[in-house]
Design brief:
The chain has 211 residues and is of the alpha+beta class. The chain has a domain of 127 residues: Sandwich (Jelly Rolls). The protein is built from three helices and eleven strands. The strands form three sheets. Strands 1, 2, 3, 5, 6 and 8 form a six-stranded antiparallel beta sheet that branches. A hairpin with a 2-residue loop joins β10 and β11. This is Nicolin 1. InterPro entries: Nicolin-1.
Amino acid sequence: MNHSESVDCTVKPPVFLQIGDAKGDSARSGVCVVDDLATDINIEKITFKNYYTAYVTIRLLRRKAEKEGSAKWCTALRDLALMDNPHTEGGSQNYFSIHRRQMQVEPDHVESLRLILRQPSSAWRLFNLEEIRLFPHKEPAPEKEVSDWLSNLIVVKQPPDLEGLPDPQTVSSSIQQMWALTEVMQANRTTASIGRFDVDGCYDINLLSLT
């Protein structure tokens, strides 16, 4: 199951609270209660479509995981505004998502969800929440260690692309021949200077006078 799949739950019909023993529209308190029964769920988010509800309060029936015994009610969110103004239609039929980070308590091990709806305006005789869905919270998977990640790598050896390059053996042989030729030239290099009038390193004055 992932975050895109909601859990199965039972949404009871809305119950409108009356003022005293009177009946009829004049006795309506503007408060409606909707119970959503679940089975030990850790909630990630709650989604619904509004129908002329001005404010919603969310209460959760939770049990503590480390303790046995009866579950307890707690308030997760109080008087969240769903309409821009109770007397106008802004937001009256919008879709809403309430995430766990918006709640005052961690919505874990929830057995029942109670939505308390309020509509103080007498302009709307009926109000409710539709298409209520609960999505479960999943802990993120731990990240793999770098060593584990490296061990899963597959090393693929590929031969180098030698197309267009000279043969390495031919290049090596040519370099060796050039080195040998350089050595021979160094060994045969003469240190005698070449001059026009010098003889055994000295100048003949007679030759100089003829020029």
